[in-house]
Design goal:
The chain is globular. 47% of the residues are buried. The protein contains 22 helices and no strands. The protein has helices spanning 2-37, 39-45, 47-55, 62-71, 77-104, 106-112, 120-139, 141-149, 153-177, 181-207, 214-217, 222-253, 256-276, 283-289, 294-331, 338-353, 356-364, 368-388, 396-420, 429-448, 453-473, 479-487. With 496 residues, it is an all-alpha fold.
Length: 496
């Protein structure tokens, strides 16, 4: 248990390092890309992420299923190798079908995204580049699942850090000489190819076969893999459909300029939330290993939930007070409505991720069907709110949909934990309210009362200090223990 905890903390530390660099890189790179491409081309490029979401539908839930099964056979190299080969075959088959379908309907997609006629050729190239880049990334998923199942999620984080630095360098150099969507597409493909190479280099140590032959490979538990994957796939589909749903709604009703504002805001909010959600890195495999040891799961997960809840609440309050002037300073005339969107989108994502570890605990306990139920429920709520707010101007309807969907997801997680995994007691509702209510009060004060920047800084400082003190003394978080575990994780023995 101690070694598992240390490895999870190492994964958290490397995730924090990666995201600590990702946020400033994004802040520096986005104005540069916006300036070099212009808002319309930037808006078209933002649909590469939509294509990525569609391609991710070919995941079919395989990655979580592979992590779950490999984590329980980590002592047998032959079994690990067999599962990775089986996963690669399954990815290849589903990718072939989906890539062909997307390319066949590419013109319909460009029409759905309301891409201007003058940019249709560029849009077609963006789709082609996204297909190749994301296909490479998905084909490396079995290798990443193998690495993470062996409690080495820290290597995955370092690989993505390397991708971040390489992608940033290539983007800056490429756009300096050729500021076009073609440059962005080529950079995307090269970056994902580097990820594949790095993951393969590491996973080879786990794939060294101890006599596994073709006969062993054929004994892979495909029925178990597919059964687990089916529910995870349904959940993945719902998650991946949200962003295309948001952007299609905006493109049809508001145009490329608003889509560009949303893209900037949504990416920044995701980067910031990912930093505070770092404890999720590697948690699924660790909880799966401890599935029959409720007390150890509580000991492992509760401090992480407390740290995430505190960090997300403090960041949410900060953004509501200071996002507008900071983003105006950051983007200048290109800021648009981003200053208003970022805190709201961050709040929605914070609500969602605040119970993500509860969600992972339920899934890792052997109840993957719940992931499908909850994600479908959250998507349904999101779609209904979008439909109901279709007359709203700009991105307001999308913000409301994101907030309501996140609330639905988190509330159902808390209810389901008590019913489906009664032996595990994670963060109580009362403790979560100790974090949530003061944050809502401070945000409400900023919304309803005109406050100067100086007064806002004083109010936020007092709130932050009080929030930390309350969290420490109510048992939500133990700052001394957490800092010790984050900065000094040592791996001295294999997983127990």
């Amino acid at each position: 248990m101690e070694t598992i905890s240390r490895r999870l903390m190492l994964a958290t530390s490397t995730s924090i390092l990666r995201l600590a660099l990702a946020v400033p890189v994004y802040l520096l790179l986005t104005p540069f890309v916006l300036d070099r491409l212009g808002k319309e081309q930037f808006g078209v490029w933002s649909f590469a992420t939509v294509i990525g979401s569609l391609i991710n539908l070919s995941d079919l839930g395989f990655k979580n299923s592979l992590v779950f099964h490999i984590a329980r056979t980590t002592e047998r190299a032959g079994s690990t190798r067999s599962l990775v080969i089986a996963g690669t075959r399954m990815y290849a088959m589903s990718l072939a079908v989906l890539l062909g379908t997307i390319w066949w309907f590419r013109n319909s997609l460009l029409g759905l995204f309301a891409v201007p006629v003058a940019l249709r050729a560029d849009g077609e190239f963006v789709i082609a580049a996204a297909l190749v880049a994301f296909a490479l990334r998905l084909l490396s998923m079995p290798l990443q699942a193998c690495i993470e199942a062996h409690e080495n999620a820290s290597y995955s984080n370092l690989t993505m850090l390397g991708w971040l630095l390489a992608n940033t360098l290539l983007t800056v150099v490429g756009l300096a000489f050729a500021p076009t969507l073609y440059t962005m597409g080529i950079v995307s493909v090269i970056g994902n190819l580097l990820v594949v190479i790095a993951l393969y280099a590491r996973s080879r140590r786990y794939l060294s076969s101890d006599g596994a032959d073709t006969a062993v490979v054929e004994r892979v538990p495909y029925r178990s893999l597919v059964s687990y994957s089916g529910f995870a796939y349904a959940a993945t589909v719902c998650v991946m459909l949200r962003e295309p749903l948001y952007k299609t709604f905006l493109a049809q009703g508001a145009g490329m300029s608003v889509v560009a504002d949303f893209e900037v805001s949504y990416r920044l909010a995701l980067q910031l939330v990912s930093f505070f959600a770092s404890p999720i890195a590697g948690a699924f495999a660790a909880i799966a290993l401890l599935a029959d040891r409720s007390h150890e799961i509580e000991k492992l997960v509760n401090p992480l939930i407390g740290a995430m809840a505190l960090g997300l609440s403090l960041a949410c309050g900060f953004l509501f007070y200071f996002a507008q002037p900071l983003i105006t300073w950051w983007l200048g005339s290109n800021a648009g409505s981003a200053g208003h969107l970022v805190p709201l989108l961050f709040a929605a994502l914070a609500i969602y991720y605040s119970t993500e570890l509860v969600y992972k605990t339920i899934e890792a306990s052997g109840k993957p069907w719940f992931t499908a139920v909850n994600q479908c429920f959250a998507l349904l709520v999101t779609a209904l709110i979008l439909f109901a707010s279709r007359s709203e101007v700009g991105a307001r309807g999308v913000v409301w949909a994101a907030l309501c969907g996140a609330f639905a997801f988190s509330i159902l997680n808390l209810i389901a934990l008590r019913i489906l995994v009664p032996t595990v007691t994670l963060m109580t509702v009362n403790k979560l309210l100790l974090v949530l209510l003061p944050t809502m009060a401070v945000i409400g004060l900023k919304h309803w009362v005109s406050i100067s920047t100086e007064a806002g800084a004083a109010i936020y400082g007092a709130y932050a200090l009080a929030q930390i003190v309350v969290a420490q003394y109510s048992g939500i978080i133990d700052l001394r223990a957490l800092m010790h575990r984050l900065v000094a994780p040592q791996l001295r023995s294999p997983i127990s």
